[in-house]
Amino acid sequence: MDGMLSQDEINALLNGMMDGGSDEGGAASGGPAAEPAAPAEPAASSPGGDAQEPDESLLTDAEKDAIGEVANISMGTSATTLYSLVNRKVNITTPVVTLATWGQIIDDYEKPCVFIKIKYTVGLEGTNIMVLKEDDVKIITDLMMGGDGINIEGELGELHLSAISEAMNQMMGSAATSLSSMLGKMIDISPPEASLVELGSIDPADEVSAFLQDTFVKITFRMQIGDLIDSKIMQLYPVAFAKDLYSYFIENKEPEPEPAPAPAPAPAPAPGPAPMPAMPTPPPMDMGMGMQGGMNMGPAPAMNMGMNMGMGMMPGMGMPMQPQMGMPNINIQPASFQPFSADVNAMQSQENIELIKDVPLEVTVELGRTQKSISDILDFAPGTIIELDRIAGEPVDVLVNGKLVAKGEVVVIEENFGVRVTEIIN
């Protein structure tokens, strides 16, 4: 019918579509094949970690700032200690405090790395984990053992871990001392434990610390040691430990001084007394009027000069002055003092030293000295002979409170050693 469908053909076509028939490829009759829905991807995760974003509400900005200030002071003291160990300039920059999860640590930090675990035993409760790169540990331990920090080939062994544990023990010990002064209470730590960690293949809760399975505090520093190290180190805190640190810090922080009140205006000065009128200049005295003032002293010419000087007229007065008849002659001579004698000085010195004669002093006899590296000291065993820097028979040093005062020779008094003084050091 000129290309038009009959009613029967339309009904047959509608019945086929309602039956939902489909061919072998899965396409419905009369329409294109529907695409299957893509399966949902599993959430990303890491071995033993949590890949979710950290809960930023656990710490306020004020708490982060205070923790950063505490960490800055502590690491500044630690940098000074590390300088004395490696004999290189050490610079540790201002810390950055954030919240993190284990999954972020795996993504951001090089593998493997060294975890140094420090437990607080007095004053604070919690664990502090320091994270260092493997090559940084090799350089630091090589410098500690007298090397140049360049030859770091080979694997990280027990000797490296022991050396870095000792370095961290001294660094964190000095940091604990700074915390004690800052928080106003005694802070102490346990000996650090160092271990080489493959970040992507461990369960942190079982092999490192339980707080790493949740959100924790990450404090990042930039550490520079001479021209050998310029890298990033981290400190990891439990959130509860960080909050305790913040509480102690706020309690012991000195309040800011209040501004001083404005000074009151100065009172107007009281009016002074009226100036006195100027006195007229008296006429010059006539020294020759001494005997003409109406007083005749009789035949005593030898006294005329003395009386003339005392009989002048008083300015502005009509009465003459009476002569000073009772003035005796005074013989003036320079004062003479008895010179100080050596006996007086000796007596005063004797009196002064009597005050300190009962003060106890520590007397030490030094047989000799030597220097050894950490590896040599670790090899010490019963029977090890340590060679000193002094020749046999050479006098020993006698020190009082660490100051060399004499030399002597070793003697035996019954069953005890003694020293016979042979020379006094001036």
Short note summarizing the structure:
The chain is α+β, with helices and mostly antiparallel strands. Helices cover 29% and strands 19% of the residues.
List keywords for this structure.
426 residues, alpha+beta, Chemotaxis protein chec, eight-stranded antiparallel beta sheet, four-stranded antiparallel beta sheet
Structure description:
With 426 residues, the protein is of the alpha+beta class. Among the domains are: 56-252, CheC-like (Chemotaxis protein chec); 362-368 and 389-426, Roll (Surface presentation of antigens (SPOA)). It has ten helices and twelve strands. It has helices at residues 7-18, 61-86, 102-108, 134-144, 158-183, 204-207, 239-252, 304-310, 342-354, 374-378, and strands at residues 90-92, 96-100, 113-122, 126-133, 188-189, 193-197, 216-225, 229-237, 363-366, 396-400, 403-413, 416-424. Strands 1, 2, 3, 4, 5, 6, 7 and 8 form an eight-stranded antiparallel β-sheet that branches. α2 (61-86) packs across α5, α2 packs across α7 (239-252) and α4 crosses α5 (158-183). Residues 20-50 and 286-321 have low confidence and may be disordered.
